[in-house]
Amino acid sequence: MDRILTSNDLALEMEESIISRVKKLKDSNNTPKLAIVRVGEKPNDISYEKSLIKKGEKYGIEIKQVLLKESTTTEELKEEIENLNKDESVTGMIIFRPLPKHIDEEVIQQTVSWEKDVDCMTPTNLAKIFQGDFSSFQPATPYAAMKILEHYGIELEGKNVAIVNRSMVLGRPMAMMVLDKNGTPTICHSRTKNLKKVLQEADVVVSATGRAKSLTREFLTQDSIVIDVGVSMDEEGKLSGDADFEDLKDFVKGITPRLGGVGKITSTLLMDQIVQAKEKSL
Question: What is the pLDDT of residues 110-147, one digit of tens each?
Fold first, then answer.
């Protein structure tokens, strides 16, 4: 197994399929369209948005941007989403989360049409994941992490997987995906006692804390496999993952880079689910 776990080859394989399927859809006047809803100016959201726009141009998928101010209210955001639900040209949508604290995220989750919920945030689609049904849309970020592990032949059966994130965006659905592969997930968070010990005893560590370069050698062993999902600014103002990549790349058994890692395949998988949504609607 390669020590640096990139998603470049996997992304290329998927891209060929996506481009071919989009061309077929466009030939019958059924071009897929993704609506991106961003509230505020968070650097990781903007980075992901740029990635999706670039992918859309490459694959022939249309992109509709809905860019809203940080001060947007729950009702205003709800109205925007309801408009997207009604817009027959929009195949699916993604709402960048976490939303500002003053917005009621539960209301927003319940507003999104489950048929356009390509990032799996609605109660209907999440319920399927928690029931072990992965036949519909999956949350793109944990799905990407699982795809990278699968691509490198990293079996999870009987393995301990520590997930440093307890959100519905990543941590909780990721735990269900690990269970589906007969792995043993442990969800960690800011109140977890003896975090260092938990991570050192794990075969795989999935980190999404948003604290740049906070995951260092003291938390890991030479047998650790690190899936770095975090995106934040480091002390030099540069985008960084949770892992101190330069320090860890020659220490751990395997690690994903910030560029060409989880983020790259996440956007590709989201685009694949947009195409799936369009295909299912015909």
Answer: 999 999 999 999 999 999 999 999 988 999 999 999 99
The phi, psi pair for 232, rounded to 5°, reads: -160, 180
User: Where does residue 89 rank: exposed (0-12), middle (13-18), buried (19+ CB within 10 A)?
Assistant: exposed
64: its two tokens: 């509709």
- The 160-164 sheet, strands edge to edge: 184-188, 160-164, 204-207, 225-228, 254-255
Of 196, 212, 221, 208, the residue nearest 245 (C-alpha) = 212
pTM of the model: 0.90
Task: Judge whether 118 and 270 are in contact, CB under 8 Å.
Answer: yes
Give the number of C-alpha atoms closer than 13 A to the C-alpha of residue 169, restricted to the C-beta side. 17
Q: Which residues contact 64 (CB under 8 A, 6 or more apart)?
A: 33, 34, 35, 36, 84, 90
Q: Please provide the distance, in angstroms rounded to a whole number, between the alpha carbons at the two ends of the chain.
A: 41
